[in-house]
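S.,

As promised, the fe (ii) ion run. Input:
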Amino acid sequence: MSSAPASGPQLVFTYLHGMLRAAGLYLPNHPQTHRAKRVLFEALTAYLGGHGRLSYRFMGDLLVANDRIMPRESLLHRRFLEVCQFERGIGGITFTRGVTEREIDALLEALTEGVGASPAEWSARKRLAHLHLAPPSQPDRQTGESVARRAYHGSIEVLRDVESTIRARQAPNLEQVGTLRVYTSTMLEQMLQTPGLVVRLASIKSYDEYTLYHSVNVAVISMGLGLALGLPHDVVRELGMAGMLHDMGKIAIPLEVLRKPGLLDPEEWRIMRRHPALGADLLSRLPSSNRLPMIVAFEHHMRYDGQGYPFVREGWRQHVVSRLACLADVYDAMTSRRAYKQAIPVEQVRTFVRDEADRTFDARLARAFERMLQMFAESPAGEASA
Ligand SMILES: [Fe+2]
Ligand SMILES: [Fe+2]
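Predicted complex:
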């Protein structure tokens, strides 16, 4: 991920933001501001020399550069994104080869003073040939769905990155956790606008990278359940984060057990059943004050009736969020194809969950699950591929 030195669109954006900061700290005509403009101009000219075009789009909390989400910059420059969209009337900036220093001056003016009702008219008035400003985009269903899908795949990338960090015996860092949070919030935001996304996103599967896709699907279904329960959105986002991280302990399970193309023997099961405790241990070292992911990692294979694993003392009360994650976990596991089983249709899972109310599942959550499917299931238009 992006702990590597910034390059290309990232670097140009850093300079763009640097110019704005210099103009705010000093005056637009101060030598520091001129220097910052010059640095931006040179980086931009170098980039455009090779690529011809560079486009940034602001979509709520997300910064998208050339159609790729920039999670780190989205996180760092949240306020900038907000000001552009809601105070300056700017939803995107596109540069093309040939951009001039006069156009950089105009950009600074637009970013500090705004462009009125129409960025296009403003640009025409200023006779800008290589700088195009777009108005803030109105959220529509298609854009929302593609943003959600990008955030889904972005989450997969972060989880893959976290996995290699842990395999290198290092602790996941704050930036990885923060990036995962940006993607989780983005999916939630889009799910609120397009409820059918819950089931459609959770139908993205990968046979080869089962655990990564499973983790994101558990996050999506957990958030869907939270919404069906009417929980506040900030709580729903935490359910998503806990879902993302619930199977973290599988990183510590030997690959020959984890990827065995068949049913596990008793000894392999014994090893596999250690993943909740291993996950809780890993997550206890995470740089976050939120203990929920750790609790959910430890408890997500416990059952409502006290069965399941890991073995705990009598009277242990499973956290309600772990019960919710347990249901989301079973849903995704059942609807996924594995080496030893076919994917089970959603209708059959629905019957199973109903039958297991008060046994495997908390009956209130089983009812919320029914509600979730009713609320969110719409034409699942055959797009279940990774
Ligand atoms: Fe698990
Ligand atoms: Fe799981």
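The chain is about 60% helix and 5% strand. Residues 214, 218, 246-247, 329 surround fe (ii) ion (ligand 2) (CB under 6 Å).

- D.
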